[in-house]
Give the backbone structure.
Amino acid sequence: MGAGTEPDGSSRSDEEWERFLRESVAGAADAPKEPSARAREVARRLRAEPDRPPEGWRSYTPARPKRRTRKGWYAAGLLVAPVLLVVALAPGWTVDLFAGADSSPSAPETARPTQAPRAEAAQRPTLQEPFRGSPAARWADGAAGITVPKAEALGWMSEAEVGQALARSRDFLVASNLDRGVLRGDRPERALARINPHQKDVQNLLDTAFRDPGEKNDPLLLFSRFQPSRTRLVGDVVKTRGRLTYREGERGALQVTADVTFVYPATPAHAGGDDEIVRTIVRRELVLSWDDPDKVITEPGTFSIVSYKYDMTNGGCGGPTGYFDPPFGTDRRADEPGPEIDPYDRSTPVAEGEPAGDECRRATRS
């Protein structure tokens, strides 16, 4: 039988049959082809929109800006959320931040400042932050706010003895103005022990002051005291700012000058939950003489008082009682008599003398 047979029964040659097989595998040039799905879609679109050119198969369409904007708002939300959390948890801190308040501690005072501290953002003090809204918020606590200079030999004292006298001078300020018992009205025994017992005029003044306080014999001239039945100090911290200086005094004595401001936050002794806080501010200037025992009758470890002055605001007006009496509620009157004073201004010396009678200095800020 031949390689192939025609329908009419005639046979094909081997060459024709081989050609037929090759064309069947390769495909004839004029053989019809089935259009692809892509071609059918293009043809359909051309029939529907003859004026619109076909879109390229691999052409690129950029993402719409709207989607990118959403990403931007999402990122901004992530940044804002922590800020809102801080505002909710620490509103006082954020008020300080946007009000421009500087919470960094003040540098120690080593010389008389040239001007008063700048004004602080007006903020109401609280039991948790009793110094809020005042320059004292940046001052040091207690004895740390009293700067002691470097000791050098002077007069009859060696360098070590001068250093000891300076330390004891600061101890006297602590015992007379920072001791918790003294602040509650106790007799300042530790401070009194530092005063030369042979200085009769001062000893007589002090004996009278604690027994029968008067205008010229008032313990407040040297000591800070509050009456517990009327006043309660807020917290355990008293803010201080000041310094000690020294020079050679009479008869070769070591003369130490102390210029220190004390800030006492107080509230009524029987206040309720919404306590009113008043800051009593006392600036003291003392001159102490560490005398040569070969020239002055004295006792070891004691000094003589040369002079004392103080300015006080928010400590009460009226007759001496031996205690500071901060004004609360209706007792705080804007039309109180007496000169105004910025109690935080340490750029000038303590004023000579105190107003007479019921007058007292009014604080321009507290």
Notes: The first helix runs from residue 14 to 26. The chain has eight helices and nine strands. The mean pLDDT is 80. The CA atoms of residues 51 and 67 lie 31 Å apart.
